[in-house]
Amino acid sequence: MAAHNATHAPDHAPDSVRDREIEAEQTHLDRVYRRLEEKIHEAEFLMDDAAKRGQVGTPGALAERDAQVFQAGVHLHRLNSEYEDFLFGRIDLLLGKDGKKGPDGAYTSVEPADGAVENNRATIAETLHIGRLGVLDADYSPLVIDWRAPAAAPFYRATPVAPGRVVRRRVIRSKGRRVLGVEDDLMRPEVTATLDGRELPAIGDGALMAALGRARSHTMRDIVASIQAEQDMVIRAPAASVTEVEGGPGTGKTAVALHRAAYLLYQDRRRYAGGILIVSPTPLLVAYTEGVLPSLGEEGQVAIRALGSLVDGAEATAYDPPAVARIKGSSRMQKLLRKAARGALELAAPPAGGVAEDAGPDTQLSLEDLVRGPDGPAPRGGARRRTRGGSARPASTAPARLRVVAFGTRLELDADELHAIRQSALGGTAPVNLLRPRARRLILDALWAKSGAGRRYTDPELAAEAREGFDEDLTTEPVLQEFLDAWWPELTPRGVLAAMADERLLSRWARRVLNPREVRQLARSLGRLDAAGQGPLSVHDIALLDELQQIVGAPMRPARPREADPLDHLTGLEELTTWADRNGGGRGRRERLEEERTDYAHVIVDEAQDLTPMQWRMVGRRGRQATWTVVGDPAQSSWSDPDEAALARDEALGTRPRRRFTLTVNYRNPAEIAELAGKVLALAMPGMQSPKAVRSTGLRPRFALAGDGAGPTGDKELERATVAAAGRLLDEVDGTVGVVVAMNRREQARRWLAPLGDRVVALGSLEAKGLEYDATLVVSPAEIADESPAGLRVLYVALTRATQQLTVLSTARDEPDAAAVPDLLRD
Ligand SMILES: Nc1ncnc2c1ncn2[C@@H]1O[C@H](COP(=O)(O)OP(=O)(O)OP(=O)(O)O)[C@@H](O)[C@H]1O
């Protein structure tokens, strides 16, 4: 580890020294901004010049103009971005071992030259400033090094145990163009180093502690100024194959995943033009984290999507209780969905009495009474039947018949024959919608065979010709098309899902897959959908829709080609914007990216422990050719069958080699909160190690009781106690307060807490994943733990959300002791 192991200078540097150091950084920052302004002018001039060249109109001049516009656009985009702390770091270094410098003007050697330190005295040979983007001075000396450049790595990696060339690491805090403060960590505290003849001072209590102590808002901040060594190893790990990261709550997994996306883009922008997908468990976590990448100068190439919004045109808004989630997430659903899609075809009946008379009687091959509808009246009152796309139609109990007249002969395929044809066509492996041409061919074969026309020709060539004519006449008849549309309709994922709401049908399709109770639960849950499959979907339904999309196949529409960038061949690896950005703005591009892509160059899965097998299949399909970064914590898993999920994960990641990293330090929770949460961890996953908390606040978690503890706690009592405890926390912290309740109390808690304003957020236990608050109120641990088979792990998540203060509110159900400590949290 770096900073928390580093030696922090006790903050007793005289104010004059502090002021002098701030002044020195201010001078450097002013120089950086002067240089940036020069660059902006250059870029504007280039744009202007390029526009003039465009009027020349020769192809060469146009290409040159485009290249210039591109470069200038890149500069403007970079330089006009206003960041709070464009420049945030500095390292003071000893002379490098070999004295060689890299392209950015910095020494390349990680190790100091022999004799750089003598008798614990040294001279600083090089000072590097680190920022969000690299800036070179007019003479190509580095004014700012990009945080992702190799020369910046010692800023993150140096520790007192392995300091390399770093003597002092400084974090600079600035706002706009003003330097506000500096925080130093000494990597070689025993060494007295001088810079320009003056002893190197150390200011502040260390950057990490300063960063961790700040109040939290509703959005995550980047950690670029204080990335720790073990985190940096992950961020800069080579992108080949699969990078797996495990770590307990608050170890920075999400932060690391986001910084890794920015790093990968910096390293190989061309490769990742294929897009980076970050999959998050909830929309709340997406909203919380999505500002981080723009703050790191990256946006366009990265799509952050919640599991419930991965499928275009569908958005999860409903919640499935654990028992239903368990069914829908299980890999058993694969088989069931395949059966359901095939079964849904059989529901399809041609329109009642659909008779086509328009194929004139004197045509050689006339079709008549092409389609016969259901025999007898449609059933009443029984279960709803749905057909293609869920469009409600009278259900057919008897399958259709197909009648045609060919060569004056009446030809008929009865229900059994049609059924046999359907079964034979379904024997193909292609998606159901794509098997329709095969079914049509089989129908024509059967009609041809019935006509006996083939036997009339001894000459095979004549027979083939006649057959061709027969097929052509039949297939150009709109009525045959109508029959096919009704008998083999184009299935939609939503339509199939809606069909599964019929318990009778579902139990047929789910034979030997689900038990009757599961069938009932699943059918009831899908009953939320209307006949067309519209209605509230849960996050688990989204994975089912995606699976069904594979099973039924895309409707046959021409694929939209990806937008090509006409400048691709002209530009180097350094572009920050693309053609689409320049023509539609970064946001527009991002939206397009999200709409169009189903296959990415790199996939990052956050909170990977929570993906169900069906969700792994859905995510896996989006990264078949990708490299992967997978971050998670098994101790926080809310999925009930981790072994099944692990199998699905292995399937999604395939045989690609994996590199594993473990993060060990908890940067979120003070030791007092981490210790309490550790009690639940010991119950949930005996033997599992908690991460080590990096700081302590001296504030122990508080325990409160709703009601008087005698008899069951009523809602009114719970409301009163929740509002009181949340209000107290609000008074005690500057930032946010998260109130975590069992999922079925979400709405209730939102109503209770609304009057307290927007610093307070009410969350269902499953929504708390990945989020953090200055203070957290956990309401009835027992209620949360009893919610699902993974309830204890969900409670562990809830207890590890606070950065400063935690209150646990018990009801009678928690069996609190005299100090209001619930049974689950007692020693
Ligand atoms: N190096 C760091 N410097 C400053 N803050 C950090 C650092 N690493 C992590 N943090 C902060 O610690 C908190 C926890 O980080 P993050 O949410 O990424 O952890 P996590 O491992 O994903 O947690 P969980 O598993 O609970 O979701 C965040 O506020 C993050 O900004």
Automatic annotation (TrEMBL):
Name by which UniProt lists this protein: Helicase
Sorted UniProt keywords: ATP-binding, Helicase, Hydrolase, Nucleotide-binding
Any one Pfam family match given in the protein's UniProt record, by short name: UvrD-helicase
Signal peptide: none
Source species, domain of life: Bacteria
Entry's Gene Ontology molecular function annotations: 3'-5' DNA helicase activity; ATP binding; DNA binding; hydrolase activity
Residue ranges constituting the UvrD-like helicase ATP-binding domain according to the UniProt record: 226-670
GO term, biological process aspect, one: recombinational repair
Residue ranges of the region described as Disordered: 1-20, 366-397
UniProt GO cellular component terms: cytosol
Keyword check for ATP-binding: yes
Binding site residues for ATP: 247-254
InterPro entries, per database record: DNA_helicase_UvrD/REP, P-loop_NTPase, UvrD-like_ATP-bd
Ranges of Basic and acidic residues composition bias in the record: 9-20
